[in-house]
Amino acid sequence: MSDVVMAEIRKDYLYHLVLKGERADGRAFDEYREITLQTGTIRKADGSADVRLGKTRVLVGVKIQPGEPFADTPNKGVIITNAELVPLASPNFEPGPPNEVGIELARVVDRGVRESGAIDLPSLCIAPGEKVWIVFIDVHVLDDCGNLMDASSLGAIAALMTATVPAAQYGLGEDYPLPVRDVPVATTAVEFGDAIIFDPDTDEESVADTKLTVITTADGSVCGMQKSGPGFLSQDKIYRIVDIACERAKEIREKFLEV
Amino acid sequence: MIEDLGMDHNNDRNVVVPGDLLSDDPKASGEGTYVKDGKVRSLLYGMASSYKDKVRVIPLAGKYVPAPGDTVIGTVQDIVFSNWIVNINSPYEGLLHISELPRKIEMNEMSKYLRIGSSVMTRVKDVDSTMKVELTMNDRRLGILTRGRVAEISPTRVPRLIGKGGSMINMLKKELNCNLFVGQNGRIWVDGNDDDMDLALKTILIIEKEAHTTGLTDRIMEFLRSEKEARS
Amino acid sequence: MIGMDEKLSFFKDGLRLDGRRPDELRPIKIEVGVLERADGSCYIEMGDNKVIAAVYGPREVHPRHLQEVTRAIVRYRYNMASFSVEERKRPGPDRRSYEVSKVSREALAPVILTSYFPRSVVDIFVEVLQADAGTRTAGINAASVALADAGIPMKGLISSCAAGKVDGEIVLDPMKTEDNFGEADVPIAMTPGGEITLLQMDGRLSRDEFRRALELAKVGCQQIYEVQRRVLVDRYSSIAAPESCEAAEAEEEA
Description:
The complex is a heterotrimer. Chain A is of the alpha+beta class. Chain A has helices at 8-19, 100-115, 148-161, 202-207, 235-256; strands at 35-39, 47-53, 56-67, 78-84, 125-127, 131-143, 164-165, 176-177, 185-192, 195-198, 210-216, 222-228. In chain A, the strands form three sheets. In chain A, strands 1, 2, 3, 4, 5 and 6 form a six-stranded mixed β-sheet that branches. A four-stranded antiparallel β-sheet of chain A has the order 10-9-11-12, with helices on both faces. In chain A, a hairpin with a 2-residue loop joins strand 2 and strand 3 (56-67). In chain C, a hairpin with a 2-residue loop joins strand 1 and strand 2. By secondary structure, chain C is of the alpha+beta class. Chain C has helices at residues 95-108, 135-149, 176-181, 207-234, 245-253, and strands spanning 11-12, 15-16, 28-32, 40-46, 49-59, 72-80, 120-130, 159-166, 169-172, 184-190, 196-199, 202-203. Chains B and C meet through strand 1 and strand 5 of B and strand 5, helix 4 and helix 5 of C. Chain B: One of its GO terms (biological process) is poly(A)-dependent snoRNA 3'-end processing.
């Protein structure tokens, strides 16, 4: 179940392509694979989104339930984000609680939602100090073909934007749509062969040793970032990634999230 | 219960699933079948066919199981004592012993000669009952792959890629301007210039997808002709 | 199982709450080969159940000490997504999923030819994406198809479904409301030849009722088998009409 060592001949080929300005599947360096987004597929959840990014597939479910607020924020609702990298999604995933990769994925998805202020936490207060709405965002990875981060983030915001607060079943009034005030979108790039490659697939992720995820909001501000992997990143590459990320995020927002 | 499927399907399809009834004659049991209560049934998801007086099922899916004599393309994963551990796209790894090389190498030179991540063309020398797989590279036609590309298809499609008596593969070698080598384990090595390799790989993937259909060789020849015309 | 104080009636004009006859299955949808990374996969909807199964294998066993020298081991992991049930479920296995995993594995292992692959493992993973009673049977149905998709040699496809007793009537394939308020639930799995590989029962049934429930569940399994088989066969029909490989090879020679 551990990662198979990639053939050098394959690595060489990917580097060779990059030097020519090409990628194995013919995409441009800053081009995304085809995205399909379906929301509301899990009717029992309060919100859900089924995202396909190339062959990568992620299902995000949102459940909203009343619960106790955190002691230090008695008047605010709670967001809890979790990601399950279930073994069915990849030969490299093992059963068990999330490892550092799964935890990192959940925390970065959470960062995008939280730091963008997409969910107005005070508005989720039911009874100050006693009862608030808890919003569970559960990312369930189904097929890892690269770039789980962007697929999961997209799924999370799409599920939230189409979620309903189930107030009626708790006797707290009528059901109403979860108010979402911003649309954070994550864009991830990897670096190898001195090139910056967006929306990496499985092989590209394997070859690269550095990855940068940039989360931007509807007005083009940056609300979250994560560099992962053991490699170096130069400053000018970082700025280039941020610039392209803003453009790509805007396109994704306009095309899929009706903004 | 559910009987009589897979046999005599005049709706031409003889795709069968495990358990499909193939024959009432237990003596007709060939590869990919089993006998129970005097009836021959399929063990596999595959294509049933009759050959002489036997009925057999050729799998449409499944992993590569090494057999002595097979030539396979592998990737070195590890070096352990005097063996290279080679991934051969199988549930079983291959062991390439230091004595199975075309020349003599000392144990401390192993990594220099053949390092982790290298691709090799080897032959399966022996497979024992515990599925310990021994490989050899001691043959002029085998060796380390330093250039070109390796594609992977389902090993169940390799016979079709080779064709009866090598008909398909020989045609490809002639029409594609590439060196081509097909490993029994579903890995195929191609070498040539970039565009030619692209065409070769594209063609191989089409063959993989349509392996179970008829008239494939002709369609591939037609495909190659039109691709080459489009290029010129 | 809840007490029968509710005034809820489960039958109206002989039809159930969702309009089905007592001996009718919920609508089924099966798709095979839905995942890229897995060796075999299957997505199934049975009523409101949405379940996806994947097979990896045969592959190397990790940790090594679990391997068996003469055959493959079979592992089955049934898991429910947090959002699959009414009240959000904490991720990870609970006692119920361990039990379901065990009996499901034991439902499939008898038909798998493990001796073909010594020292390896066939891993079966089932994820419940939405649950509405009958997820374990849906999982087994999907797993069977996924195993075929992966090319695992088997004696036959296993089909699974449940019968229950609701408002005194024996019904096929109970949905959640029926299961919650019903008097008994009998999930089974079987081979096309009628041999039972999964049998569980909870509730209360007379011996005669149990026999009727079992017979009804068997009928359900047969119907499901037809769908499973059709999906696998049809998959190779969309391209040029296939003939036997022998004919194709003969063509080459000519």
